[in-house]
Structures are given as C-alpha cells and as structure tokens.
Amino acid sequence: MELFRLPPALLAMVATFLSPSNALSHTPPPVSYSNVLESKLNRDITISYKEPPPGTCMTAISSQKQYTGYISIPPFTLAPIQQNYSINTFFWFVEARDNPSVSPLTIWLSGGPGTSSMFGLFNELGPCEVVQLADGTYGTQTNLWGWDRSSNMLFIDQPNNVGFSYDVATNASFDLLTGEVFEPPTPPDTGLPHFMYLNGTFGSASTDDDGKPWATTANTTEIAARATWHFLQSWLATFPKYNPGVRPNNTNSQVNGPVGVNLFAESYGGKYAPVFASYFEEQNQARLNGSLPRNETLEVRLEVVGIINGLIDDLIQDQYFPDFGYNNTYGIEALNEVDWLNARAAYTYSCAPAIQACRSAMARSDPEGYGDVTSTNTLCERAQAACNEIVSLINNGGYYPYDIRQQLPSPDPPAAYQEYLNNETVLAAIGAKVNFTESNPYVQAGFISTGDTIRGGLIQDLANLIRGGVRVAFIYGDADYLCNWFGGEAVSLALAAELTDYPSAASASAVPGTDAPPTYADGFPAAGYSQIVPNKTYIGGAVRQYGNLSFSRIYQAGHFVPYYQPETAFNVFARIINGLEIATGNLIDLSTFGSTGPANATFTTTARYSPTPTCWVRAWNASCSDDDTEGMLAGEGAVANGIYYLDPDDVTSAYPESTIAAGVPGHPMSTGEAASTKVTGVYTATATPSQASAASHRSTPGTQFTFASFAAASVGFGLGLLLLL
Predict the structure, then answer these.
(1) Which has fewest Cβ within 10 Å: 441, 473, 542, 702?
(2) Alpha-carbon gap, residue 480 to 324, rounded angstroms
C-alpha cells in the first residue's frame, strides 16, 4: 500500500527543493537500554534510556555524560485531544562542559514542521559534528562552539514520527527521488538504481478515515505543545540532577519547585516556541489554582525563549519577502522590479485578507487551535496557498531560499550526519528503534492541512511571557530569504508595541524618588543598535536590547545561524541565558538597560558564496544537478558513503588525503582537554574591532565536503510554506 503521495500542486514545489532524507538504509538492530522506568509522575508513561558508548558523539570533556532514549506516552494521554495513538519521543541529552550540576538547562527544537532536532545537534550547535574519515566512512569530532560550553542541552525529536520518534515501528520502502513511502516494503521502480530505493523501519504513516497520512501525530502547534509538556514532566522527574528548580542549592528547593529552563527553537520553531512556552505557563497557573494536582506535576518555568530565524507571524513577515528579495543588504536582486511590485500588491490584496479571514474564523470556531474544524482549516490552508505565491517568487531566479548568496542546487547541509546516524553501530549505540529521517513530509502535510502557519496570536503570547519575566530573544542571520531579518525586526517592534502597559509605574522596580523606566513600546524602538563583539578580531552583528527583549542581526549568516557563524551564535546565546549585555558580555541591570547606537542596522556587503558541489543521495533534489539526475536515471555514476559521483573515478579521489582523528561508538578520540584551544567560557569584549571583518568561519578538519561558515540546510517548499528546519 502506498502510504504517502504529495498532492500534484505540492509535488510540483517539492520537486525543486524537497530533501527526501527519510531514506532508510536497513532495519535498526535489536535495542537494549540500561534503564527502563515508569515515570515518577505518571505510571502509564515509561522512560527508556542509555548512555551512548564514548565516541558516539565526541564531547570536549571526556567526563560529560550523555543520555539517549525514549519517553513513551500511551494513547489518550492528551485528552480531550483525540490522541488514539502511542507517542514515543526520542531525546538526546548532553551535560554542560563545566559544572553541569549548576548549569542551566536548554531545550532545543528544530522546525519544519517535521524536522528532527538531530539536525541542530549535529549540524549547528551540538557538542559534536560529523566528519569523513580517510576510508570514506564517518565519525565525530568535538564542536568547539557547541552550546554545551555554557548549558546542559536537551534535543527533542517532536512532534511524533519526526526523526527517531515514532508511533509504531513499521517496515517500509522509501523512494529517494519522489519522497514516496510504501508499506510493506515493495520492489523498487525498475527505472531507479538500487541506491535510490531503500528499505528500513520508521514510524507508520497511519491514515484516518479520509486517507490522510498524519493520523498519528500532531497537526497543529497547539497539539504539539501538549505532547511536549507531558514529555518534559517525565524527563525532568527522571533526571532531577539537571532540573534547576529542585537542586539543593536552589533558593526554591521543594520537591516540585519551579524549573528554570531555556527554550530555543529555529525556523518553524518561531511557531513552536511562543505556543509551547505559553502552554507551559497555562499549566503552571493550573497547578496554582488547583486544576492540576501539584504533587503529581512539575512547574515548567522558562527563563528564556530564544527564536532563531523564526517564522512567527505571517501577517507581519510575509510583506518583507518581496522587499528582501529585491533590495537586500547584499545587493543581490533575486527579484526583478516587476516581480517586486506584483508581490507587494499580492500581499495587500490577496495574502493579508486571507490571513485575516483565517484568524477570524479560528477565533469563532477553533480558539483552542486543535485543527478539528474543517471549514476553518480550509480557510487557513487557502491563506497559506495565497501567501505562498509571494514566498516562492525566489524560485524564478534559482536562488537558494536559506541563503540568498547561493544558487541551486546547493550541497549544503552536508548529509553526512544522516549517513552516520543510519549506521547500524550508531543506531545500536543510541538505542534507536527506527532509522533516522531528517524531515517527515506527512507531518508537514498535516500542519499544512490545518493552515497552522497562518494562525495568529503569537505576538500576544510573547508579550505575556515578557510580562511574566521571561526573556525573549530574536536572532536572525541576514542572508536568509525564507525568514529574513527584515521581517524578524518587524516582529520585534510589533511585540514591543504590544507592551504599552509594561512595565507600569506601579509595578516597575524603580529607585525611590526616580521615574519608572519607559514601557517596552517606547523603550525598545528607542534603543540603538550596538555592535556584537564575539572576539577581539571581528564584529559579528548588531543588536537592539531593551530589558528582557532583544533582536540580533547576525552578519553573513543564512537561515541556520549557529551553522554559519558558530562563534558569534554561541556568544549571543550564552550572553542571553546569563542575562548579560548581548553586544559585549558585560554585566548589566536588565530592569533598566537599553542598548545604544544607530537607530538602524545598516551594515551592507557584497559577499557571495559558491560551495563545492556535492550530490547527497539523501538530499537529492536539493543538492544534485540536472546532469546528476540524468546520469542516475540512465544508470551511470557511482555512490559511496551517501555521495553520488557522476564520474566513478572521482570516488576515491574525493576522500580526505590524510588520516582523520575522529570518534566512533566505543572508540573515542582524544577529547583535547589538554589542548591549547579553550573549550569553555564566554567572551567579554573590552574593545570594538574593525567593522571590516564581519564574519567568522566554521571549519571541521578532514571534511571533503563543505563545513565552512557559509554552509546551510535545505528541504522543500510546502503548500504555503517552505519546510523550515
């Protein structure tokens, strides 16, 4: 039975961009866990986890503990949501490099909707990254600028059926060229070579009565938030050592004290983070008013909500697609003047009215956001289609939507980590029950079916979080078209404008005899842009910061900021979670602080990036050329370690020239604890470098593919949105 086939309109878009990375190499080996426990808060929920063997993901400090595994939630746990399926959510946790027992906890969510957080772990900000060895296989090395430098890190694959998460482990076949899934496994199309049609195990694509293959996962952000709250309840209870609210040295040390954690999300995480955080706060209030039993639940109190190149509010951001495409800070005219003018008109007369119609219907019929009102879903899905006409104009010039400096096809991101995670030894090491899939197209299709991206209310959610004392930080790479910084800056200003009443004169903690500080509506736009200094040699970006709200523009970075500019991204992250001045890392009083500098972030450059071509089998339609596709279909070329070579003679010559030191499960390399490179700490600026050097570089020794500062990731256009990693 064919489980998933994209509708023709969507398939036409996906043919250009979709990374069919759900490719499966073989069924994972039998799984064993060192711990299988009942949740301390809900005996129906189980936690199965293990410590991966050393070398599986190389950390900077050999003593850093890691845990991988699943939290299994039975059907009907999310009631009143119609959750008649099991949820098995995969996690990968790594301790902070320094003093993990007193370090903060940061949760990371990649976007999509439907993209694995393993992308963030291995391709952006995790403790390790994948490198190719001299024999062509893959191992891991330490990521110098991993965010574990300053925080315990928890990576979660959500919603259900994303990445290593699943409902029921199911054997199936996957067509890498079309993205079609078949269950049970079927013989390949005779027109495809064997390496383009692979068998393995992954979450089912169970259909509902209407034949929609997203019946066993969330199809709105509101539902995903509820599943993640249940996950966190059990995870935090199982690992109290990393729960800031229950540590002995915490000022509030009662058994179920507040959990001071940070939530960072990327891309479609611009939807996830505000909704998840708001739901956590709702549950906190329910505990206080007695609606939830306090002795059976934990308070999940967030310190920081961070959003990286996020799609937050289409009504605000979509109008900036034509402006950024036509007149960006790189001098690249991805849209011509006619397309620019037409797109602006399309936003005004088609996109914006459709969004407003969706939101009006939602307010009347689906205020909870469960996506179970067909008429409202239809209006919101139509709005996505209308607005997508604006977003997709970048296709006309062949520009890469995640980095306007590139043109398609793009070899980035390297799919090496996908090959690594599908290795039998690695699957066994982490206790995976399914093969790794980077992005799940039927999860995405489920969110599309409800028009989830169009539904609003997130600006209000973020405003309420700031009123509650949560720090909200926006971080945008300035080369990204898809979630460009023009729109991100507009969101930050719209959020400030919501806070005309905060802080109020009565609630402000002003010094007696002095005036209360300005409200965010006045103080944030009045704050100037300060230069972000990540080290003594260059300027990494510009930041407007006022109290608990900040907007950072990161220079020469695309959609995935930590991947393009790892040193700058880390320092910005660490300064945010520590409550420091983001520009310099200096101590400040957030109740009164406002950054100083120009009113606008005006830096411009003409930098371009042309990465070395690499055709990744698991990212065929994004990274391979027309010549590659023609050769593959004709039976020409060769594949080695997940890379297609049109000329088979290129296979061995493309390997690294010398032996590369890297770890594999059970065989770690030296962690470099005694090396001269400092692997912990946050930089505090004492001076401002020259403006001329505005970008850092990420390099991984031994890679024959690009891991430079300008690498990025790509997956496909959906109906009304790009798949946002």
Answers:
(1) 702
(2) 9
* 104-to-101, 245, 262, 391, 471 alpha-carbon distances in Å: 9, 10, 8, 38, 14
- Sheet architecture: strand order including 181-182: 2-4, 181-182, 169-175, 197-203
Strands (E), 446-507: 471-477
Asked if the model's pLDDT at residue 17 lies above 90, the reply is no
CB atoms closer than 10 angstroms to residue 643: 25
- Tell me, what's the pLDDT at 174? 82
- Is residue 559 annotated as a catalytic residue, yes or no? yes
Does 159 or 29 have the greater pLDDT score?
159
Q: How far apart are CA 358 and CA 462, in angstroms?
A: 21
Residue whose C-alpha is closest to residue 433's, from 676, 125, 204:
204
- Per-residue confidence (pLDDT) for residue 255, from 0 to 100: 40
Dump pLDDT digits (tens) for 356-375: 999 999 999 998 889 889 99
Would you tell me the crossing angle of helices 337-346 and 374-391 to the nearest 10 degrees? 160
Whether pTM exceeds 0.90 = yes
Rg of the chain (C-alpha set)? 24
Residues in the chain: 725
Determine the 3-state secondary structure of 725 from DSSP. Answer: coil
Measure the CA–CA gap between 270 and 112, rounded to whole angstroms: 10
| Catalytic status, residue 167 | no
267 is catalytic: yes
Catalytic residue among 206, 267, 449, 709: 267
Instruction: Judge whether 346 and 443 are in contact, CB under 8 Å.
Output: no
Q: Which of 86, 109, 717 is nearest to 402 (CA)?
A: 717
21, 559, 623, 628: the active-site residue: 559
